[in-house]
Amino acid sequence: MENLNDLLNGFYVALSFKNIGFMIIGVLLGIVVGVLPGLGGPNGVAILLPLTFGMEPVSAIILLTSLYWGALFGGAITSILFNIPGEAWSVATTFDGYPMAQQGRAAEALTLAFTASFIGALAGVILITFVAPLVASFALKFGPAEYFAVFFLTFCSFIGLGKDKRSKILVSLCIGFLLAAVGLDSVSGDLRMTFDNPQLLRGFDFLVVVIGLFGVSEILVTMEEGLAFKGKKAAIDLKVVLKTWASLPKYWLTLIRSSLVGLWMGVTPGGAIAASFMGYGLAKRFSPNGDKFGTGETEGVLAPETSAHAAGTAALLPMLALGIPGSATAAVLLGGLLIWGLQPGPLLFVEQKSFVWGLIASMYLGNIVGLIIVLATVPLFAAILRIPFSVVAPIILIICAIGAYTVRNSGFDIWEMVIFGIIGYIFKKLDYPIAPLVLAIVLGDRTESSFRQAILGYEGSLSVFWSNGLVGSLMVIALLLLFWPIVTEQIAALRRRRASASSAS
Amino acid sequence: MEDTQAERGISRRTVELTVACLFLLLSVVAFYDNYTRGAGWASDGPQSGYFPARLAVIMFLGSAFTFVVALRAKPEIFVTYEQLVRISKVLIPLIIFTIGIDWFGIYLSSALFLAIFMVWLGEFSVARSCVSAVAFVVATFLIFEIWFQVPLPKGPVEALLGL
Question: What is the maximum alpha-carbon separation in chain B?
Answer without folding.
Answer: 71
